[in-house]
Amino acid sequence: MDEPAPGGAVPPLREEIDRLDGEIVRLVTARVDSAASLADARLQAGGTRAVLKDELDVVARFGALGHEGHRLALVLLALSRNRSMGSAGRRGAS
Fold this sequence. Notes:
Chorismate Mutase Domain, subunit A, mainly alpha, 73% helix, 4 helices, single chain
């Protein structure tokens, strides 16, 4: 349970965090979908599903958030990798 803050700031702040969490989930889902489409396009063109340099660039970009940013990048890459390896039926599942 949230402790009340002076001036009753907790509920509006909680609502803002909940709103941001929803936006983050939406953005991660969009990123995973885009990465799966990119992986499919690469495979259809005779390439590999992923390009190591691109993945390292993602990790470096998230490094702006510190060590935990690197971990977050690896989680995003894993989500994308797992999604792109799934079947078309799995892609449509929620």
